[in-house]
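Bug: token stream looks shifted between consecutive jobs. Job 1:
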Amino acid sequence: MSRELPGSIIVDQLRDRIVTGIFLGSWQPGERLPSIRDVADAESVDRKTAAAAYRRLEEEGLVRVRARSGVYLRTDGTTAQSSPLERLHRRWLRNTYEGGRELGLDTGTMLRLLESIAAIEETAIPVVESDSAMASLIADELQQRVRLHAVPASNFELRHLRDQYEHAPFVVTTPFCHQLTALQSTFKTVVQATLAPELLDALRVTLSQPRALVIAPCEAIASKIQRAIEQGQLGALAHAPTVINAQQEPDIIAHVRAASTILLWPGCISHVERQLEGYACTKPERLLSEPCLAAVRAAILDAAMTRFASMSSPGITSSNGDAARRIPAAASRAHSANPIRESGLLA
């Protein structure tokens, strides 16, 4: 470019070059462009003119100027300025939309499917267990890990349970629930809660050490751990461990000071953790096994498909007129995860 040309013409020419490069694929979104100095030297103009050219391109939304970094070609759309959460939402939306279209689903069908899942997640799902504390632990973890509106339901007569949760498409319980047979005949689906193998492994490692201490969040868990120890279901132990109930033990610190190794069971209340600050302690984070969570998710999908079918007209069609046979079936109908019976804690 000639220095004798007006600055506006230089800007126009530079802009045309970059736009042409974008169109031909020479410039990629997010790519760093030549510096102001490089542009000035290559085009035989002063740096002030080159900087003005880039300012023009920035005003038009073609480039982004980053202080002490350089000039970059903007990415398409608004994703460059969006937050990480917005980019995550956009990626999910794109995958869902494109995946649905590839299956031949129209947008209305996809919307009704998602609405069906959301409705099931908002429905109160009872966690049936004779011990209220254990029921609360399971319900809390289901709320956190599956985003399910799980509610503890302890000491319920079956008739009252059925009346209060008549809209629940399934229930969650433990394998040793005395009402299991009655529940299976009353509710379409019963999901059994089982312990995470990682939790049992951590328990065995702790119990293998001398002066082991296990702090349980409730009497039901404490008694089941103690029973499993006495029955030898956690292996032969050379040393007698101590198992305490955090809800009823008045002097936890005395036990902690006497212990060489400590396991804090998931769900222990926060003030117990504060008392253990400064002490080495194993803290497994998860109570429930992955097969249990997978069974809950499968139950949600099956219930959502049932609701979707009830709210849709016969012969649901996709965007290209195909019948609803193109809608994939629910992932699984095997809802009862195999209990980890060797532990004796949920069996």
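Job 2, same session, no restart:
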Amino acid sequence: MAVWDRIVAGLAKTRRALADGFHGALGASPRGRVVSFEDLEAALIQADIGVRTTERLLTELKRSGDHEEGAVRKRLREVIAATLRPAVDTQPQTARPLVVLAVGVNGVGKTTTVAKLAARARSEGRSVLLAACDTFRAAAIEQLRVWGDRLGVDVVHQQPGSDPAAVAFDAVTAAKARGIDVVFIDSAGRLHTKHSLMDELAKVKRVIAKAEPGAPHEILLVLDATVGQNGLSQARAFHAALGVTGVVVTKVDGTSKGGIVLSVVEELGVPVKWLGLGESADALVPFDADAFAEGLVGATASSAGPLG
């Protein structure tokens, strides 16, 4: 299945939720079905697109002057794609080793995401080193080691309770010595409201820069789509503390709250780089703004419903 089709399929639950609300926003007119923007507003917020983003979308839709269902749906898809497109990062990273730090709260799928990114890099012929910097949980270190064995990739780790910054420093230093192409650093999950833990993560970033000036070259915030608007609070805190360079949204296929992506892009202006659409190693796909817009709104009217 092509990436476009996988994104559209992965957003099926969100699309159906929006379709139900959109259907309730339709009324009759001599020309056909017209949209009640008040009801559409509720449908968009229900899909976790967020109040501020919803208001801007509705302003754009009303400006066209055509309130018929087909025209509104087409315009909505265009506006969503336009909102997301500038945040798609197309700039190649040329650093070697490229140092990628994955951050986020507990349970969002950071370790699995790091493993999937490593698998993708390996498939592209690049050499990879993993760093197990979640030293709070022995299980996290072992999980990354299992992935490393599966992928044929070395994992730099220390004993549970070790300083995560020291592990990151060792990993980057080892990558430089071995001529490794990419280092993926798996950090411990932490509540974005715990300032001491966020300070520790900022220390990891500083120590990485001592090992390799200019690193980390990528700071990827991993967000769980199922948490909806709480993900926006997480994004604000991590971006303020670290300067996030990109977002990975996981569990998109398991939720009706995929609209959170728009809120994050609208507020932070950082690119969404990857979408998690399942558990397999190849279930992390590059973000595509047009496919995402179609996945939310649908392509054409069908018997499945106005947004089917």
